[in-house]
Specification:
alpha+beta; Nucleotidyltransferase, domain 5; five-stranded mixed beta sheet; 23 strands; 37% helix; 20% strand
Length: 481
């Protein structure tokens, strides 16, 4: 059995063939790098047709592999929180606005004043914030009115490419919709109250369905181009975070998935009918039965990369040795590492980074350590709001690049961390979800491979806990709720 997995990420697009055990088939992957356009005003956008063409190019390439003859289903994950508008023919009218576009921050603040923000948070799982659609739609309506009015339907990029391939309107999965801030968690429909506030009719949004609703029958153009996929079920796109949790194996009660890439996230799966969403976190969905509760930060490996480019650090092996030998909080600095604004847990979209306590004796390595510990403190604050004390399954390029940083995070969380030995965690999750939709297979039946377990050092956890309190106090002085 073979699954075709499509992964539309914020920095790369990939197509992969996975086997029945959700392992990558040797030589069966193709990728395209891409970059979101950003500027000093807070833009973070992409061109929809450029993304689609790159996705299709990856599929073309991977379908030359011999294993394509056994493809039984297609699944997709996308960077979610993306929004775009199309005309009556389905052609893209707008750019794709990503979750990282902060130009609607003032509109998020206005919505928070106009609405009962706490009620909205529990209804939709999302706070008023520039990451989500309500603020972006309000901003577009006010700043690009003619364009806004001309849009026939608003959708995500996954739905957009499916509509191109099938030549008809396609549903949006409740998983992707949950990242929009427009989905009512209880009724699993578009939230009537927020739509009324925005003056947006439900007909201007896609029909909703569980990800497992199969789409079949490619248009003649694509059936000819991808004949092996002509009658194969395509399952609806899911959020990349949902796929990563499934792929990491963190699907049991109390288990957490930690993803450390450019940014970071901590998430847990809940099958409670309607779990409460803690104030600093969000509530999304995997499917009709399973919720995803957690928090995502705008800081992660990007902080390490910024330090590498800015602080004139020594060679990477010297840096890693110094971090591994460093005494926790030895630098005496208090770092708020919000170089890209803030999402969880404080949601201050226009927050900036701060380092307090520098002296003439402060070194670049001191600053680096303080920043990395600062990221660990932020993750610990998220973890404190998530129920459960099970194992944390961790993956991502940042942890592979710096095992010492992984130990810092482990010490700050004061919980064991299982390091994943799965190079394709998100794709693995998509394959497992596709397998479940196809034949009802248990997504936890095939556990992930591990490369080791980190255990917290209590002697390090105590000073890090004190430093976290110091960081929270500084944050409180700088930002109000």
């Amino acid at each position: 059995m073979t699954f075709l997995v499509i992964d539309i990420g914020s920095s790369s697009i990939r197509a992969l063939l996975m086997d029945d055990s959700a392992r990558l088939i040797e030589g069966a992957s193709a990728s395209h790098k891409h970059s979101l356009y950003t500027d000093a005003d807070g833009a973070s956008t992409a061109d929809a047709d450029d993304l689609r063409v790159k996705v299709e190019s990856c599929i073309d390439a991977v379908l030359t592999h011999p294993a394509t003859a056994g493809i039984r289903a297609v699944g997709m994950a996308t960077f979610v929180g993306n929004l775009m508008g199309v005309d009556s023919t389905g052609a893209a009218l707008t750019l794709v606005y990503s979750y990282a576009d902060t130009r609607s921050a003032a509109d998020a603040d206005s919505l928070a004043q106009k609405l009962d923000a706490a009620d909205l948070h529990q209804r939709t799982g999302c706070r008023p914030h520039s990451s989500y659609h309500p603020a972006k739609l309000r901003w577009l309506a006010q700043t690009q009115t003619a364009l806004y009015v001309s849009v026939r339907r608003w959708m995500d990029v996954g739905t957009f490419v499916y509509e191109k391939w099938f030549g008809r309107e396609c549903p949006c999965s409740t998983s992707v919709a949950a990242w929009s801030g427009l989905l009512n968690r209880e009724s699993v429909t578009w939230d009537a109250e927020i739509l009324a506030v925005l003056g947006l009719g439900e007909s201007r949004l896609p029909v909703l369905s569980d990800y497992s609703a199969p789409q079949r029958g490619l248009s003649s153009e694509y059936a000819s181009r991808w004949s092996v996929l002509a009658d194969v079920p395509f399952y609806l796109a899911v959020g990349d975070g949902a796929a990563a949790n499934v792929g990491s194996g963190a699907v049991g009660a109390g288990q957490l998935a930690l993803t450390m890439g450019t940014t970071a996230a901590l998430r847990t799966v809940s099958d409670v009918t309607l779990p409460s969403v803690p104030a600093g976190l969000w509530g999304y969905r995997i499917d009709a039965r399973h919720h995803l509760i957690g928090g995502a930060t705008s800081e992660g490996g990007n902080v390490f990369e910024w330090a590498r480019q800015t602080l004139n650090l020594p060679a990477p092996d010297i840096v890693e040795s110094a971090l591994a030998a460093a005494i926790p909080d030895q630098h005496g600095l208090t770092a708020i590492p919000l170089l890209a604004g803030e999402r969880s847990p404080g949601w201050a979209a226009n927050a900036t980074a701060t380092i307090h306590g520098m002296r003439l004796s402060t070194t670049p390595l001191d600053i680096l350590q303080a920043l990395l510990e600062g990221v660990a403190h932020r993750l610990a604050m998220i973890a404190e709001q998530i129920d459960g004390d099970g194992l944390i399954y961790a993956g991502g390029g940042a942890l592979h690049a710096s095992p010492a940083w992984g130990q810092m995070i482990c010490n700050a969380l004061a919980r064991p961390i299982a390091l994943l030995d799965e190079p394709e965690v998100t794709a693995r999750g998509v394959a497992l979800l596709s397998r479940r939709a196809l034949d009802g297979a248990d997504w936890s039946a095939i556990p992930p491979r591990l490369r080791g377990t980190l255990t917290p050092d209590s002697a390090a956890s105590d000073p890090l806990r004190a430093a976290r309190v110091r960081q929270a106090a500084l944050y409180g002085q700088m930002y109000t709720d």
